[in-house]
């Protein structure tokens, strides 16, 4: 086959460390942080907010993935501070739930305006701290702005429904009410947008929201929280309505395990998601899981190949392959496979790799050194089982004199691993490695390619992995569309047609099926997860009939 394709925590509670630990930031990092009111001097930045800023736990390091520069050390929550912050969030919820929905919507509008005024600055910080290119960083912040717009309108439409009763003089109402405290554990790859999806709907519903960001992107969380806190303060609302808990595993475990946190929204790996889901269920809390994506694009021979090529390129290399919706598998009809792979390889060679803050760059670094190690391991496995690396497969080094020399850069890769049909000739170890390559998500720019002969075969390949987030079919035949989106089609939560796997809009519910977690965020009916539902039967008659015609003597 390879031959075919080859064609109250005040600051006073903290004793800051000695001045010898002070930071020495680059001028560009200082400028970006200063624009967002993040201190550029001093030893540590407080990473806990519940109305006041503080935190006296072991600090986290925020490291620029492009340069290796330590941007800041951020204090975290101790167990006592975690407990106190959750308690204050609970008190803030009692205030929020009493505010009419449209008034909460007005406050969201103000948050939207405050964020919009800082889109460029926040986008630059996302690029600096996470590593995605600047236009993607800005676009991520714009998602938060857009979902605020959506939630403002939603605040007037979070209605239940009236259900006809079988009993005379009775009505049944299905009513939503605020849920309580919503804990949000967000991932590094979208350090702003994922929290925005959750906060906007949670706040509109009348809940307090408590954010535990990724331990590697605390500065983005601090900057966003400062903006929101300013709006809450102007409106006389407690800051704990949108609290922040920077920290590592112990902080996350404490938030997930607290009975005072009614719902936990977790975005991250399948491995950690299983732990979160089980722990929340064990205490009968609600969970919303957005986990791995092993997304496939299928290209039919009748497709507009120019459009498909551009979408596959962005889907595979955008954000250096670190989107949950990144294109990781490409299934090509045998008749077009050689030319498509050749054109895609040529396009890969023209993609500028470098500083994500440079407007000419299209691919930035991987987020951490560990991510580079995962990339290398994936390439090594593909080679070990007899796969072909068409392009890429190596780290991308910058000259020692470059400020990017310490960055986590790799070459976007196109690979042709063996397929299941060749597994019969492999050892048990080889078959296990082959299964790992096709069925596990590699969070890096590694695109795996295979061929098919019939659409039904391609759909089966699409559905053959545990994950079920995003998928797309490229074709101009409407009959293929019917097969693709119908009951025998893609089993993913996002089923696109002539649209890439990446780049969802906020108006539709976002999420996946199977081991992606079944969660839904953003648009659609996602808001219904952030409320508690009550069925209310009301008797406005002078009789008291029982349901189903049951007769029981009166007392």
Structure described in brief:
With 555 residues, this protein is an alpha/beta fold. It has 16 helices and 23 strands. The protein has helices spanning 2-6, 27-34, 79-96, 101-116, 119-129, 134-154, 193-205, 218-234, 249-257, 270-282, 305-317, 337-349, 369-384, 428-439, 455-462, 478-485; strands at residues 48-49, 53-54, 57-63, 70-76, 161-164, 170-178, 181-185, 208-212, 242-245, 263-267, 286-290, 295-299, 327-333, 388-391, 413-416, 446-452, 467-468, 470-474, 494-497, 509-510, 513-514, 521-522, 531-539.
Any guess at the CATH architecture of the largest domain?
A: 3-Layer(aba) Sandwich
Largest sheet: 7 strands, mixed
Provide the low-confidence segments as ranges: 2-21
* CATH superfamily annotation of the largest domain: Aldehyde Dehydrogenase, Chain A, domain 1
CATH top level class name of the largest domain = Alpha Beta
Q: Which structural category do the helix and sheet elements fall into?
A: alpha/beta
* CA gyration radius, whole angstroms: 25 Å
The percent range for helix content is: 25-40%
Supply the number of helical segments: 16
- As laid out across the biggest beta sheet, the strand order is 2-1-9-8-7-10-11
> What general outline do the C-alpha atoms trace?
globular
Strand content: 15-25%
Give the SSE map.
Elements (H helix, E strand, L loop, with lengths): L1 H5 L20 H8 L13 E2 L3 E2 L2 E7 L6 E7 L2 H18 L4 H16 L2 H11 L4 H21 L6 E4 L5 E9 L2 E5 L7 H13 L2 E5 L5 H17 L7 E4 L3 H9 L5 E5 L2 H13 L3 E5 L4 E5 L5 H13 L9 E7 L3 H13 L19 H16 L3 E4 L21 E4 L11 H12 L6 E7 L2 H8 L4 E2 L1 E5 L3 H8 L8 E4 L11 E2 L2 E2 L6 E2 L8 E9 L16
Parallel strand pairs: 7-8, 7-10, 8-9, 10-11, 12-13, 12-18, 13-16, 15-16, 18-19
Antiparallel strand pairs: 1-2, 1-9, 3-4, 5-6, 6-23, 14-15, 17-21, 20-22
Helix pairs in contact: 3-9, 4-6, 4-7, 4-8, 5-6, 5-8, 6-7, 11-12, 13-14
């Amino acid at each position: 086959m390879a031959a075919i394709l080859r064609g109250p925590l005040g600051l006073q509670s903290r004793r800051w460390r000695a001045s010898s630990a002070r930071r020495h930031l680059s001028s560009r990092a200082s400028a970006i942080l200063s624009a967002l009111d993040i201190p550029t001097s001093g030893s540590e930045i407080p990473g806990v907010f519940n109305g006041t800023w503080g935190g006296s736990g072991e600090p986290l390091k925020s490291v620029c993935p492009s340069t290796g520069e330590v941007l800041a050390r951020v204090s975290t929550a101790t167990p006592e501070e975690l407990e106190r912050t959750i308690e204050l969030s609970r008190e803030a919820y009692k205030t929020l739930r009493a505010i009419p929905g449209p008034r909460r919507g007005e406050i969201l509008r103000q948050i939207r305006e405050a964020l919009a005024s800082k889109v460029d600055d926040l986008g630059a910080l996302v690029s600096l701290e996470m590593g995605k290119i600047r236009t993607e960083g800005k676009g991520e912040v714009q998602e938060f702005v857009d979902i605020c717009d959506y939630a403002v309108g939603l605040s007037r439409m979070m209605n239940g429904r009236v259900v006809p009763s079988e009993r005379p003089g009775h009505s049944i109402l299905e009513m939503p009410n605020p849920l309580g405290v919503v804990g949000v554990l967000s991932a590094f790859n979208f350090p702003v947008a994922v929290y925005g999806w959750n906060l906007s709907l949670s706040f509109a519903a009348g809940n307090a929201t408590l954010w535990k960001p990724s331990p590697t992107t605390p500065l983005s969380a601090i900057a966003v929280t400062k903006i929101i806190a300013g709006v809450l303060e102007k409106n006389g609302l407690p800051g704990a309505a949108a609290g922040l808990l920077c920290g590592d595993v112990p902080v996350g475990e404490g938030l997930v395990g607290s009975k005072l946190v009614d719902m936990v929204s977790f975005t991250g790996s399948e491995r950690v998601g299983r732990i979160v889901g089980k722990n929340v269920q064990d205490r009968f809390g609600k969970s919303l899981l957005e986990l791995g994506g092993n997304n496939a694009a299928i290209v039919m021979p009748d497709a507009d190949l120019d459009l498909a090529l551009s979408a596959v390129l962005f889907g595979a290399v955008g954000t250096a392959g670190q989107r949950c919706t990144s294109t990781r598998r490409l299934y090509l009809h045998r008749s077009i496979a050689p030319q498509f792979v050749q054109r895609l390889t040529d396009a890969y060679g023209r993609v500028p790799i470098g500083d994500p803050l440079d407007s000419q760059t299209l691919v930035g670094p991987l987020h951490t050194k560990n991510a580079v190690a995962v990339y290398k391991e994936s390439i090594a496995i593909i080679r070990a089982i007899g796969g072909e690396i068409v392009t890429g497969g190596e780290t991308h080094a910058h000259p020692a004199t470059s400020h990017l020399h310490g960055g986590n850069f790799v070459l976007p890769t196109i690979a042709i691993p063996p397929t299941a049909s060749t597994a019969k000739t492999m050892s048990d170890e080889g078959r296990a490695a082959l299964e790992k390559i096709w069925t596990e998500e590699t969070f890096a720019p590694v695109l795996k390619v295979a061929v098919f002969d019939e659409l039904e075969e391609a759909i089966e390949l699409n559905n053959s992995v545990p994950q079920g987030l995003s998928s797309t079919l490229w074709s101009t035949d409407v009959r293929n569309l019917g097969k693709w989106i119908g009951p025998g089609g893609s089993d993913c939560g996002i089923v696109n047609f002539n649209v890439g796997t990446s780049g969802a809009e906020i108006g539709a519910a976002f999420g996946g099926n199977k081991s992606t977690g079944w969660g839904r965020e953003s648009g659609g009916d996602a808001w219904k997860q952030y409320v508690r539902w009550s069925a209310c039967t009301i008797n406005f008659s002078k009789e008291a009939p029982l349901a189903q015609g049951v007769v029981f003597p009166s007392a």
